[in-house]
Amino acid sequence: MDKYGIHLRLVNEDDADFIIQLRTDPRLGQFIHATDKDVEKQKEWIRQYKLREKAGEEYYFIYYYKDEPVGVNRIYNIKENYATGGSWVCKPGLPIEVPILILIILREIIFEVLNLHYDKYDIRKKNFKVLRINNLFDPLETHETELDYYFELAKEPFEKKKEYILNLLNVNADGSRTIC
Predict the structure, then answer these.
(1) pTM given for the model
(2) Distance CA 159, CA 53 (A)
(3) Contact (Cβ atoms closer than 8 angstroms) between residue 69 and residue 18
(4) What architecture is domain 2-169?
């Protein structure tokens, strides 16, 4: 699938090295569950994940920008009317719009492809950069723990904010920029 100038596909075993690079980077991995650096263990995790994917229980995506892999995220905890969008990690140094567009694509899949009504997710309290991006969408904070904030984003408010954010970024559906 291609949208907003970004290509995405489902993860496969060949992506294990890239996933490990992202998830074990000390700066990038500090707010997500720890990942073993063993490529074979990652490939085994992906094989097990593919069974969950086949059952419609989980989807793990890899994103490309300018033909280079730049990020990953997952949709999991899929229930009757909601899912969790998470495990969102992107390479550093990307143009600011790329991680935001990746997040928009993830939520479009939740709302438009899976036809769910809510994205229910959590963010570590000290993950300030992700919290700032998250706040662009005005999600409802449902509760918090010592470590995390918990949010819920409904489809209708997302659609309204998505248009605003795309206009703010001057990005069209094909990834081109609007010239003012």
Answers:
(1) 0.91
(2) 26
(3) yes
(4) 3-Layer(aba) Sandwich (3.40)
